[in-house]
Amino acid sequence: MSGYGSRQVAAVALKMALTQSREEENELKTRFFEQGIKTAAVDCGGEFISSVKKFIERAVVASKRESVIRETHSEEGAVAGAAREAINQISMKAVGFNVGGKIGIARYQDHVSVAVFFGIGLLHLDEVAVGLGHRAIS
């Protein structure tokens, strides 16, 4: 299918981040693959400040594992940059708290997007935050 741009790829990444189970993840992954969109998702959690590096690394590793990107500096850097941007967007809410949720990654041709969907907080007093980053890969 043609006509996918940065907005549509970002929406797919967000849908992947919102999945609640591996089964739902795999179902969406198959559906999007049939449309030419490669996807990945990874669960993440921990104390925000000390976990940022781990979250970015997990996004890159998941992207390579699911063949969303190749193992090149430019493609790994694009995912790392988009993940950092997405995480940065939630940082004001998350600093000093534990976070838990999912990172979704989507790629169509030269568009790659990373979305984070995290619960932030303590015990049952959670806040919810979403972040989104995009990069172009040539």
Automatic annotation (TrEMBL):
Any one Gene Ontology molecular-function term assigned to this protein's record: RNA binding
Q: Which InterPro entries match?
A: Regulatory_HutP (IPR015111), Regulatory_HutP_sf (IPR036482)
The coiled-coil segments of this chain are: none
Keywords per UniProt: Activator, RNA-binding, Transcription, Transcription regulation
Q: Name one Pfam family in it.
A: HutP
Q: Which Gene3D superfamilies match?
A: Hut operon regulatory protein HutP
Quaternary structure, per UniProt, is: Homohexamer.
* Family listed: Belongs to the HutP family.
Q: What is the documented function of this protein?
A: Antiterminator that binds to cis-acting regulatory sequences on the mRNA in the presence of histidine, thereby suppressing transcription termination and activating the hut operon for histidine utilization.
Record's protein name: Hut operon positive regulatory protein
Q: Which organism is it from?
A: Thermacetogenium phaeum (strain ATCC BAA-254 / DSM 26808 / PB)
